[in-house]
Design a protein that fits this description.
This protein is of the alpha+beta class and 266 residues long. The protein has 2 domains: 3-47 and 147-256, CofE-like (60s Ribosomal Protein L30, Chain: A); 54-142, CofE-like fold. The chain has 6 helices and 13 strands.
Length: 266
């Protein structure tokens, strides 16, 4: 049976915090002992915060390209500068939105840069050139981890060393989808969990061989965990998973990313 349990009393994460220790302390408070094949799903924000990925917009100098794109999309040019720095290419734009290929290879809105649940410190004045969105000088935004797979693997290694059990780690974020409204939890970093489960060659209920079925198992679990985490002020950024229906194995995020040649939305 698949069970998902949000870990209790996770503190507000700061730069340099040891997420492995925080997880183990939370498990202890919940009387939860980690066992082989358990999975821990973490919201991207706490990983980014622990890795110091907060950026003060007052420190960002927009380029001419950022100012141009900001005017086209009605966005803060400082944020646009960060989006450009975090992206391989711009895929689509419209007022309020810049869809990019992130440096980690996936397509997402605004390079995953976010203000929600990110602190800011107001000052009494701001630059007249930057009135409007983000005009507070000491406002911070949060970038995605530089390498989410690497972050997941580092955390898994610490937890496995401390517990002596075999674990899986997912780092997830909320993304939109082509053809559908609403965001869902999706995997952006993975270690020890199958990204895809290939069912090609298996038979269906009537004995027909499956020809193309590959299950995005990591994203399915990410969506389920995201339901437990919530999307606003719930304060449940880590979910413990037991009973995942597929064997754990090594994998990488790139398994989930469709190549440009097969991507009909570009």
């Amino acid at each position: 049976m698949l069970t998902l349990t949000p870990l209790p009393e996770i503190p507000l994460i700061q730069k340099g915090d040891n997420l492995a220790e925080i997880i183990l302390e939370s498990c202890q408070r919940a009387n939860l002992k980690l066992v082989d094949d358990d999975i821990l799903v973490l919201a991207q924000k706490i990983v980014s915060k622990a890795e110091g990925r907060l950026v003060n917009l007052a420190d960002v100098e927009p380029s001419p390209r950022a100012f141009q794109l900001a005017e086209e999309t009605d966005k803060d040019p400082r944020v646009v500068e960060l989006i450009l720095a975090e992206s391989n290419e711009i895929v689509r734009t419209c007022p309020g939105l810049i869809v990019v290929e992130h440096k980690q290879g996936f397509i997402c809105a605004n390079a995953g840069i976010d203000r929600s649940n990110v602190e800011f410190v107001p000052r009494p004045h701001s630059s007249p050139l930057l009135q409007g969105e983000g005009a507070l000088e000491d406002e911070y935004v949060l970038l995605l981890p530089k390498d989410s797979d690497k972050s997941a693997t580092a955390l898994r290694e610490k937890l496995e060393k401390a517990t002596g059990v075999k674990l899986g780690i997912l780092i997830i974020d909320s993304h939109g989808r082509a053809w559908r409204n609403g965001t869902v939890g999706m995997t952006i970093g993975i270690s020890g969990v199958p990204a895809l489960v290939d069912l090609r060659g298996d038979e269906d209920l009537f004995g027909r061989e499956l020809k193309i079925t590959q299950v995005g198992a990591a994203d399915e679990l990410a969506a389920a965990a995201s339901l437990m985490m919530g999307q606003s002020n719930e304060g449940k950024p880590i979910v413990h998973v037991r009973g995942f229906p597929y064997p754990l194995r090594e994998s990488k995020l790139k398994e989930l990313i469709r190549s440009k040649e097969e991507d009909l939305f570009r």
